[in-house]
Specification:
39% of the residues lie in helices and 3% in strands. The protein is an all-alpha fold. The chain has 2 domains: 178 residues, Cytochrome Bc1 Complex, Chain D, domain 2, CATH 1.10.760.10; 131 residues, Cytochrome Bc1 Complex, Chain D, domain 2 (Orthogonal Bundle). Helix 12 packs across helix 13.
């Protein structure tokens, strides 16, 4: 058997075993204690420096970070749209189209790595990426610092938060600190996990049980319901052969490691606020949650499910929408700070 086939077979076997094990551990009828749940609620508060959060908020919405002063971080990560832009792939300066779907910035601090391919180990490292990407902001630190240095009010705010003032590392740190404050706690599902069983309807609770018993929980677990591991896209079927037109962005983690086993491997996305962040997957190929669930059953789980079961899982996924600044993202009333 060729080495690639052996690796693929081993990966399939491991994933089947993991999904079966997860289902056996968690798919038990009756009440659960929170300690037994594979998903944990987002903490109700986060301890961050308020001055740095305010500064990071300002920089996150500052279009001077882009070469032509037309784009800010918020252009692709709109807080009023679930932290995304709703596009299949984002539009950069001069109308350039990026190769990949923009993930939500909400709860990004709960991810173990940043970007779909996991190339950034921290939010600070991630913050520098779009500034320098020619298909995103297309700028560089000397240009950015030159423009920001003319803003007396911003310079005073920087100096108050950072003794050494205007430095690339301080811009990155401030934006990262702001992003650490973008957690969305108190979703209805979080309330359920904290003991309020009435927070979910009978259908939604059934959807959660199905989410576990079918094995979705093998990759989507923890506080962020994902975001804490890498996985192949197409474990139980060749997704890319079916979709066609494979590009560099589809290689995923391979672009970082150059390891053949990492081709088409991506960071598992968080499912927090998933009902608000269509289209789905790194390629934005699924326009709706039902579409995304269908793809997961076919290519990740490799098993059939009834239409009713899928509908119940979708109902459960809607319970993962949380709150920002005490207001539900689901209401559509959350707006950017600036």
């Amino acid at each position: 058997m060729p080495n690639d086939a052996k690796r693929l077979g081993a990966r399939h076997t491991t994933t089947r075993a993991l999904a079966t094990c997860a289902a056996m551990m968690v798919c038990v009828t009756g009440a659960f204690a929170q300690a037994d749940e594979p998903i944990k609620p987002i903490p109700l508060s986060v301890n961050v420096d308020a001055r740095k959060v305010a500064l990071g908020d300002r920089l996150f919405h500052d279009k001077r970070l882009s070469k032509d002063n037309t784009l800010s971080c918020a252009s692709c990560h709109d807080l009023a749209k679930g932290g995304v832009d709703g596009q299949v792939s984002s539009t950069g300066i001069n109308g350039a189209k990026g190769p990949i779907n923009a993930p939500t910035v909400f709860n990004s601090a709960l991810n173990f790595r940043q970007f779909w391919d996991g190339r950034a180990a921290s939010l600070e490292e991630q913050a520098a990426g779009p500034v320098h990407n020619p298909k995103e902001m297309g700028s560089n630190w000397p240009e950015v610092l030159g423009k920001l240095s003319q803003d007396t009010e911003l310079m005073a705010q920087l100096k108050a938060a950072y003794p050494d003032g205007l430095q690339p590392k301080n811009i990155q740190d401030a934006i990262a600190t702001f992003e650490r404050a973008l957690n969305t706690p108190n979703a209805r599902f979080d309330k359920y996990l904290r003991g309020d069983k009435a927070a979910l309807s009978a259908d939604e609770q059934r959807g959660y049980q199905l989410f576990k018993s079918y094995g979705c929980i093998a990759c989507h677990q923890g506080v962020n319901v994902g975001g804490n591991m890498f996985q192949s896209f197409g474990v139980m079927g060749d997704y890319f052969a079916k979709r066609g037109n494979v590009g560099q962005a589809d290689l995923g983690r391979y672009n970082v490691t150059k390891n053949e086993a990492d081709k088409h491997v991506f960071k598992v996305p968080s499912l927090r606020n998933i009902a608000l962040t269509a289209p789905y997957f790194h390629d934005g190929s699924a326009a709706s949650l039902p579409d995304a669930v269908d793809v997961m059953f076919r290519f990740q789980l490799g098993r059939p499910a009834s239409v009713q079961d899928k509908e119940l899982i979708v109902k459960f996924l809607h319970t993962l929408t949380g709150e920002y600044k005490g207001r539900s993202l689901e209401s559509g009333t959350v707006s950017a700070s600036r």
